[in-house]
Amino acid sequence: MPPRRPAAQCVRYMAAFWFIILLVTFFSGFAAATTGVTTSTSNQKPTYITSLPGLDGALPSLLETGYVRPSMPMTMDDCRYVTVDEENGAELFYYFVESEGDPGRDPVLLWLTGGHRCSVLSGLVFEIGPVELVREPYDGISLPRLRWNPNSWTKVASILFVDSPVGAGFSFSRDPNGYDVGDVSASLQLIEFLYKWFSAHEDYLANPFYLGGGSYAAKLVPFITQKISEGIEAGVRPIINLKGYTVGNPLTGDSIDFDSRVPYCHGVGVISDQLYKPHKVAARKKRARKTDHPGLSPSS
């Protein structure tokens, strides 16, 4: 049997769990009232949030939430020039946190959470967002508190957190078929999302734009970056001021992620030459088997 956690630790976990439920409930109230942003001339407006439960004072910068309804492209080459998927009614939810520095000049970053299919709210309150949970003993009565994140990336950039794919967080589809998305279709939806979002937020078009994501999302980020780059070369509008991308703890593929662990440990001195030599021989034989039998999985 696994070791039991101390009662106090379990209480802290439960407190954090219910606080996240409170945050989700708080945001969902705005999500329910938020309408889709489709074009810069639309009469539909996003929602602006100025305070959060558990946080003393107002937020240090603009926090905007809203929905964008992406298209469902038929092909990768046609991802920009398709109509809205009215049949499925898929919509992506976002949080946009404006830079605390110079929003007119600071970079804009699209951030995706891994998982797969986890809510990007975790990235906002646990990783790079402007607020974080206060780690302190729980008194059993009051709610856990939020505080400013001194290492928030919003100090130097505006961040666009998106719940993707459809079904993650507050992103939803009116038709169950809209949830049937894979890596490619989810990436194409995000490309459509970005074109529509920038069309509705033209003030940020001149800002340097970067894409980022962690874990599983790192599989999508390079592909999205490449397709946007191709769109720029083709003159697709609006022209996004694309500068690059960043990935954290990226998931790329079994043959790279797993087979590189031992060479890495050897390179940093964790594994001796004596232990590493047999591994090199075994790895060489494994690659030979995969070459002779391409159908073998990386774990074969």
From TrEMBL:
Against Pfam families, the record matches this protein to: Peptidase_S10
* Highest taxon of the lineage: Eukaryota
A Gene Ontology annotation in the biological process aspect, one of them, is: proteolysis
InterPro entries (UniProt xref): AB_hydrolase_fold, Peptidase_S10
Q: What GO molecular function annotations does the UniProt record carry, in alphabetical order?
A: serine-type carboxypeptidase activity
The signal peptide, as residue positions, is 1-33
What are the record keywords, sorted? Answer: Signal
Quote the SUPFAM superfamilies the UniProt record gives: alpha/beta-Hydrolases (SSF53474)
Its family?
Answer: Belongs to the peptidase S10 family.
Q: What is this protein called?
A: Os11g0430000 protein
